[in-house]
């Protein structure tokens, strides 16, 4: 570290083994997430390796009045890991180990900086699975997944991250260490603070250890790609497949999304281009289930809900079909898309989809809008691509005008402005479309208790 800032010198003296950097390239790297909308300007980057170091850093922050931004893989899309106002970034990437495995309880205990893919691999070594999964598995961290209650592509079968958290160790905003739930299945001894910390986006404290429940491997599955002739039949296809099959996933995307993924190197699935697509994965443990899958496909074809389809014949082909869905975010990244990540109850999805399609068609006549989402759990992703030549600030301004209308629609449908990305900086202005004034007041009160000086990721979720 080459800074002469007396605050940082005090921290380095208190923790001589702590890696603390003020290198310009490091400040740039650790001060932003995938939103790329804010100029990073952190005070410094701290990279602890032990819980005690995290506690000492937080206590130092309270003494010095320095705000702290917890940092994991920084794959977030809501600005939740941005440090743009002189905060200390507390990166957990060096706390990335598997700490223990309990075969009886089937619990894997890990540090927060471990990548999701590494958790998958560790579970597999014990003949089990950690079932939360999504495309950023190689770069996102478990701590970040917990901070946003990440969902992904298999929520329809396994639920969100919170269903798989058996216990947490958390350093609060005052530097206290909380050991929450301790792996218990039944625990009716008051408030479940573990669940409170999940999805809190680092505003209440810092996850420093997580105990993850593991599950049996799923039965053999197949993947089917369906081509749909219109938007209106989407929910009929979902209902037909859900009634006949044990669904693992049911994902939707548009022809525009497909074209971007193909341009990014994916293999073309059909000769003709269709307006809408679904990739679904389902159990095929026996002949009856395989027959049910074909019956569902044929029924949809007879109704005119499906125009074409392909079913995987190998693991390699299944991976190719999944790439068409999982490759969308990476393919769109160069366009710096403005993203909406919204959800409604599945029963409200048909009306909401129709209303939203009309709204976006009218509001963005000159912008390319790419849709995809986890239709099976009511989650829709809307990506608006910035045209060449349009100033980025003006692009965001126009998009935010439409987001206000979208938030109004979500309020009417009792939906959420953030299904799985979190609120962060991007969506805090729309929090009241999802939460009542009374709820927000309670949230502020909780933060005051756990973070009395307001130093944990300030300005995220709501303003101080």
Automatic annotation (TrEMBL):
Molecular-function annotations in GO: (R)-2-hydroxyglutarate dehydrogenase activity; FAD binding; metal ion binding
Keyword presence, Flavoprotein: yes
TM ranges: none
Domain FAD-binding PCMH-type: 38-217
Reaction catalysed by this enzyme: (R)-2-hydroxyglutarate + A = 2-oxoglutarate + AH2
Gene3D superfamilies on file: 3.30.465.10, 3.30.70.2190, 3.30.70.2740, Vanillyl-alcohol Oxidase, Chain A, domain 4
Keyword Oxidoreductase carried by entry: yes
Source domain of life: Bacteria
Record key words, sorted: FAD, Flavoprotein, Metal-binding, Oxidoreductase, Zinc
Enzyme Commission number(s) of this protein: 1.1.99.39
Listed GO biological process terms: respiratory electron transport chain
Cofactor or coenzyme needed: FAD
Subunit structure as annotated in this protein's UniProt entry: Homodimer.
Family under the similarity heading: Belongs to the FAD-binding oxidoreductase/transferase type 4 family.
Protein name per Swiss-Prot or TrEMBL: D-2-hydroxyglutarate dehydrogenase
Organism annotation: Pseudoxanthomonas indica
